[in-house]
Amino acid sequence: MDAQSRGRADEFDPADQWILNPHTGDYELRLNNSGADSAGASQASGPRIPRRREPVRDGGGERRATTRDGGGERRGPARDRHGSAPRREVPGQRSRRSANGPRGQEGSGPGESTGRRSRKAPKARRKKALLWTVGTMAFVLVGLSVGGYSLYQHFNGNLGTVDIGGAGNKNVVDADAPVDILIIGTDKRTGKGNEGYGDKGSVGHADTNILFHVSKDRTNATALSIPRDMITDIPDCTAKQPDGSEKVIPGTQNVRFNQSLGQDGRNPGCTMRTVEEITGLKPDHVMMVDFNAVKELSTAVGGVKVCLAKPVKDPDSHLDLPEGEHRIQGEEALAFVRTRHSFGNESDLDRIKVQQQFLASMMREMQSNDTLTSPTKLYSLADAATKALTVDPGIGSVTKLATLAQELGKVDTKNITFTTVPVMDNPAEKVKATVVLDTAKAEPLFAMMREDTSLTEVKAQKKAAKSKQDALLKGPKAAAAEIRVDVFNGGKVAGAAQTTVAWLQNNQGVLKSTNKANAPAKIDKTTLEYAPNQADQARALAAMMGLPGSAMKKGTTDAEGLQAMVLTLGADFKGAGIPITGPAKVPDGIQQANADKAECAK
Q1: Please, are residues 223 and 418 in contact by the beta-carbon 8 Å criterion?
Q2: How far apart are CA 96 and CA 48, in angstroms?
Q3: How far from each other are the two terminal CA atoms of the chain, in whole angstroms?
Q4: Domains and CATH numbers, the chain
Q5: How many CB atoms are located within 10 Å of the residue 505 CB?
Q6: Dist. CA 267–CA 4, nearest whole Å
Q7: How far apart, in whole angstroms, are the C-alpha atoms of residue 164 and residue 253?
Q8: At what angle do helices 138-146 and 348-367 cross, to 10 degrees?
Q9: What is the sign, positive or negative, of the torsion defined by CA atoms of 433, 436, 442, 447?
Q10: Which tens digit of pLDDT belongs to each residue from 459-514?
């Protein structure tokens, strides 16, 4: 995966743009290009160098903060013309090359005052924590925005974008809806030293994959790992060609999931389509990285703590570590997440668990004071992240990523759960090299995600269960013989309306159900439209179908005569008798790992 359109802003050194904001106690990156200073404004023009703060003692021996400007003059806190205490404004940025004189010389003004850095309460700091999951750098960007750091043109020039052929490309994010981001780590061996890992000619397959689902109310998130060796069907997809034209790439049945990218010219949009077919969740955006991401980001953060329950010496990944805790970065970090034959039963599934542990540890490292208070680390993280990241056009700028970050950053990290698509050994193989979907376990998990049900205990989620929508499901229910409903098919299952009507009549006793064939348009979510005087019928039908409260669409006027309710089956409908709602709690046997808890790799 070679990122396109990478650039640099040569007029300034972004590392010099960190400014302490006394209101928040955070450093902020600021950039203005006009070059001249404007006294009295914190938005002074021209790139500036942050002043170095030094403690000095006044005549009474009291320590107070002073600043040293570019010319070496020591000055005390600025006061206004009445001698009052300094105003707590964001310090002005110093020009590196002033239009009025040599470097570092500039006028002073109220915007240049400094204030004592305020302490963050632990809870407030936690809420601004840097988010991270398996696409590595993706949530570094989230954290930088959430922590109050501006990502601007330098980082924007680093970003690469990829046209995904219409699968996604939507504008940033809907603030009043769940967010689903597909993060792909490719096995393309680009970058210094990476060809030595073998398969150096790889076009870049979908090697590490996580569907990151953030709830509508932003109280929780689920990071769903998808095994690369899972046998699945890859649907037809459209890929942009070098000449600008679009090509439909035929689907393939019974192949590894990782072939959804790279193989036969497939782009990330094809992987997104495959994920949608498997889970019923349509990714809003895609973020893609290669091997360099792990090396560069683990180094930028100063190393990641990992724990080994036993010593590891893997000749394939070149990981060589004794038992116990270690801080790893660079090549060693990449070896840790790549090793496959050192943990569990040496399968890709156990490697996924190790990767999840590494990523959770990276998240905790980014939450530490050493990272959050270090401009150098934060700048290095953002720079490494944007250089390694390729995204769809919908989030193809730092401004758009910052908007996305504002939404994702609302999630408390204690409510981020890692899990893996439930699979079992491929029964068609004697030598077990691949896996297949365990539908009985997977479908309830997918249903929970589609219904936006948290995998962790979240107070706000419990309150949501008592919402007005769910209240529509409570109350008297009509007898099956009294239910009158017209069924339309607006989903993906061919003949769904007919099979549903047959099931309702033969299995549930709803004899007044009618097949109305295809709906006027396809819809994502199944809906049941009913009149106020049909509420008892609607509740009874919802119970039979396993409909959530969000599917209930109550009208404003009563039904007359033989008017029927309207049931429109959406893309979330899997078949007659299969509840659309997911379970309230995670079913037994589902692998989980919490982002807040450290574990040792076994």
Answers
A1: yes
A2: 6
A3: 32
A4: 1-119 (no CATH), 125-453 (3.40.630.190), 468-569 (3.30.70)
A5: 15
A6: 14
A7: 21
A8: 20
A9: positive
A10: 555 555 445 556 778 899 999 999 999 999 999 888 999 999 999 999 999 999 99
